[in-house]
# Entry
Amino acid sequence: MSREAHVRFWESAGVRFPRATHLPLHRQEGIYRRHGLDLPRSTLCDWVAQSAALLEPLVVEMKRQILTGPKLHTDDTPVPVRDGPRPKMRKGYLWIYIDPKKNVVFDYTPTRQRAGPMDFLGDYEGFVQADAYAGYDAVFARGKATEVGCWAHTRRKFYEAKDTAPAVAHESLLLIRDLYRIERQAKDEHLEGQALLRLRQEHSQPILATIAERLPLWSQSVLPKSPMATAIGYAQSQWEALIRYAENPLLAIDNNLAERTLRTVALGRKNWLFAGSEAGAYRAATIYSLISSCKLCDIDPFYYLKDVLERVSHHPARRIEELLPCHWHPVTPD
# Structure
């Protein structure tokens, strides 16, 4: 029976396979039991562990490609993790890294210390688009990676401070809106490379120059410790990183790609609540990496994982790249 026929058989019986819907194992156990299939949670947990081990070489290859690429997006989110056999929770973190090929790698760390991104990025020499989290400063201090700022973060700070300085907020938000209008035009016209660079040089850079002139004037018109002063200070401290996108068509205006992709973990937490152990968190990072890559590549994760799990153990290691979501081609069904 082909994969498609197998799925149609079960779905005709009323079984809906959970595809990237973050169902915890105890709920999957109950779903299978209601349909007459006895799959204990311990068995499902073993399957997850074995699958993660088989899939790990793919994530290692995606990490290699990310670290040899010209740019990446990164962000992080907290994940509750059970601390040993006691019902005590502590906070771990999942960091996300995305490259232009749509490789997505999640990296789990027990803390949010700067050692996390430093260990992952190492001597990376490309552009790193992120928020202004101080943990990345040590990476940029090495002098190899180049920081790219996020106008979405900047805009959010001005918006959140709008009630404390309405006039400054109105002017700043209009200027940032104009920056995004230019990016929308570029997207609508499918501009890339030199065409995108020319558009930004002609239209975005004059707006950026106006914002640069206005920042010190806005700073003088607000209270030093007000939320608006904080927003202005953020833009000033990040200025070189914020204008970098207008100088290179490879770069984006913001880090929304990482934020949108990372949101899948935030949604998942509402269902599975916590990782059962640190080992479980590492396994979750492996599986999240491949499922998120599939989503960016517009691939159904169910068919991808089923196909790759059947092939990866005998696939030549030197051709592991062929099994990555960005290069994957399914075997023709029987």
Residues 24 and 272 are 5 Å apart (CA to CA). DSSP finds 13 helices and five strands in the chain. The radius of gyration is 23 Å.
